[in-house]
Amino acid sequence: LAKATGLSSLKLFAAPLPAHLGIFEAVNGLELRLYQEENDAKAVRVTPTCTGVTFQPSFVVFNSTVSVGSGITAQAKTSGNMTIDYVATLEGNSSESSILFSQSVTVLPLPIEYSVESKSWNGVVLQHDSFENTTSPMSSFWSKQQHGYPSNACGSYDGSNSLFFTSLGDRLALTSPLQLEGFHGKMHFYHLYGFETIQKYDAQGDNRVACEMTDMNEEVRFGYLPVGADPHNVSSWQEILEIPLPATRSSIFSSYSVILPQLSMHQASQFFWMQKNHSSFPIDAATGLTRDEVILAENDPSGVKGQLGDHEKELWNYRNMFDQWALDNVQLEVRLNVPALSLLPSGRLNSTTGVGVGGIDVLVASPVPGSWVEFTPGDGTQGFPVCNASAASGSSNKATVSLSKSGYVHAVACLLVNSLMISSYPVRSTRFLVQAIEPTITSVLNTSKSVDTWTLNINCTNCAFMRYIVVPLEGNTEDSSFVPSCTFGTEINSTTGDTKVTFNAKIRAVACGTDLLPSKLVESQDLVVHPRVPTFKYDIPATTITGFMNLTIVPPSATDQLFGIVYSIVRSDKDLPTCSSSLTSGEINLVVKVYDVVRAVTCCVGVVCGDSIIASWGPVTVQAVKPTFTTACSGIKPLTLIVELAAVTDDATVRYQILTTDTQTSLTCSSGTLYTKPVEVSSGAVKVVAMSCLDGLKMSDYTEIVVVLDKCCSGRTAYTHESCAHVLLMEDDFTKCPGDGGAGNVQTNTNWHSVTSQWGGNNVNGGVHSDNVRCVTDSKLGKRVLELTANGDLFSGVAPVGKTLTSGGSLSDRTIDDRFMEWALDGISPLPCNSLQYCPARRVGAAVKSVSQQNSGVMVIRMKPCATFGTLTQVWWGNYEDVDTEEKIPFLPLWKSALYQVKTSSDIPFTLTSPQPIDESYTEIVMQWDASTARTNLYMDGQLVLKQIGTNQTEANSSLSIGVWFPNAAAGEPFFPTCHTYVDKVQVFDLQITGGRWCDFEEVIADTISCSEDTDCQEWVQLNCFMDIYEAVCTNDRVIDTDDGNSSSSTVGFCQFRLQPITQTSVSSTAMTSRELDMQWKEEEDPMGLTT
What we know:
six-stranded antiparallel beta sheet, Immunoglobulin-like, rod-shaped, disordered C terminus, 8 domains, eight-stranded antiparallel beta sheet, Jelly Rolls, mainly beta
């Protein structure tokens, strides 16, 4: 690793070449890694430079912070000691360069070896023949010499004789079979074509000893017999050389050194010299010979040295022979082929790549039987072996060499033949590649620290060192920066070493060594690391209102690791926390429900590790606060207590139990009654026990409520109970009568005063008189009832006489001349009669006034009012004598004309038309009033029909008055003689019995009383109204009138209340003074005959 000033941020990691290379050897798969400062990345060209080694590609351009150039091939071109410089230059600025890395290598020269074609090649002459021996048979070099024999007929190259070819037939020489497989070599010989032009004949006439000049197409061919060729079938023989004819005839032998083809070198190699054709022919030949007979005779083997053979002599006498030739000094020079070196299959050999793991076995072999091999393994600098004759005994032509490192095998093949040492040239093998044995990784986990710690031992066999990289388990881990090599990664300069891992990772390691390929990359198991679980800090309260409490989650403490926490608040196993969620460093302060379950895991910050075991907290045992309560007497039912319970703890439910003297408390959160609405507690109960419950909390302590019912006196029937008898203030069924009708009897009823007075002021009517008050027996009821009599304009009696007010305020009898001036209606006399009739007794009514006075209360009266037109029957609280009819009446009127007369005051509110009686039944009238708030409700036969709120509040007490009278024109003209109002019974109660129920539905219209069905509205009426009303329905329409069919839709249910129906009708009455028919709004009569 080298740094340069101008390129100081660069770091180059180069896979070094072997220290020794064979010349022309190529080393493939080299790798360069260049690292730059991340914030100073630049385009950099790195060029490996060496005079004797070339690289392909010749340079690599790096342009990222981490970049790898791979697949580089280096090839040695010249031998010698070389230096390789890795030169870096900035792209576009070649003036700035730096040598980042240098390596020295030695390129080995080729061993001394010559090809057979080279003039420097030499071998050992295995066979030779100069044909000087003319007496013995041919040497073992030959298997056949047909028509050739040693002779000086054509001369000799370096002796007395040569192998001379003449005679008829095929002229050829064929060597003996030789084992030449595994050899290469040359055939040396000298050759001469016949050169004489004059024929020489012997005494027999033969010219067999002549060396007559060879003609064209009569050349000699040199060749070999292929493997398996038939020696008798010359057509299968292969020619190597056709010896050319000389340009001019000559007696000088020509020299030939013929390289023997490798195909000719086999286990039975034979070589031949054979003349293609010649011009010789027989003389004095027998006639009738066949071609086969002639050929057989020409090749008669019995002819020796050119003499006629036995068979020839039978066919002809002598011959003319031409085209002779000679062969001399034949030598077979050979050398063993270099041994073959091949890989032996074994368990450590990768047959696909040819690389051995941890070692490699090489077979050094020579195919020549009887030969042996000599070898030396090494890095290429070792010497070449030589053949030693002493090693011939017991040696084999095959040997196995085991290499533990990459390197070369030098070898030579040796053969001892008849004391001749034949050897191959020495050979250097190609580089045999040995890969380091992959390291082993063992791991031990320590869980005693704040985070798991893996201790890994990396071990290798027969390596020099190792390198490793710790690879995170997440992200792109196939990037080159996560792949170690023998130049990149953390080095362990030993065969064993330890490292520690404290985050989720794995180890990738490679074993290395000199002259070893990097081992196979080894990867450990996934090393998952878990931190310790977080802890919780908290204080448990005894009870809780909100259900919340403080909780702190604390990560484990560590000095060399930062931790964060992920938590979830769950009530099941869903949504468990994982470190894949966003996390918070340090302690976490929470406000949690006491019944929550908090699960938390510790996570590593800055590095990736596994989640810790999930730590759980909660729920804790905390008690709910006991419920609070309020009590109030029921506004509906007597001797009934309404208990309202409220949970103090948020979202808690309340359960209760009503105890009697015979029951014990057994209330739990799964028993008792669930509180959903106020509880009615009635007679027999002595205590109400209540408790608060909430899932996850312990049930609260009991709240105990003592039941006291004595003062709960709401409801019409409350007075029937002994403790509530006080609410009945007055009750009169008129067994005793407050008047005697003027008979002079003493009044015996002390509840009432009979009234004689002028009402309304200004003498506008005849007033009331005590003589019109009496009691009569109602045969249907079978009892006495109060009778109040009104005498109309047709009354013929003379008493009682109505009263007028004097100027001093006293009363005096009305005279015949007293006029009713305020009755001045069109066509009506102010006098009720003419001068011949007695008028003072007409238009005189009756009234009684209670002795008891009240400011508020409930009056219940059963009465039968005067039904005749022209009177007004009224019940009210307060004094009436001084009230002008032109002023607003501060009490509730009951009956009134259906048609307003011209002079009728429009300020008289809420009057009711006297119904035409259907039968003789009594009507129950109930009046609920409170003078202090100036309000009153009127009920008829148990149904609210009228509500009135005034402005004249008073705290004064008043008497109850019941009367029938003739208001000034307000009730029309009384064209009748006498009319009676009957009262069956009167009860006056304390206002307490209403329970404050005024039926104020008008006040909640803005908020709307929501509902889902009519019963919801009816229930509201029961709780808020003293008596029932005409209509309470649930509707979805804001504006709806089922009577006229007009509506507009809404989707919200709310209650609609009515006291009576509304309809547009035409009203007329023949019972009244004749008037013009008008269209007016009139209350539709209900089944009881009352309308508003």
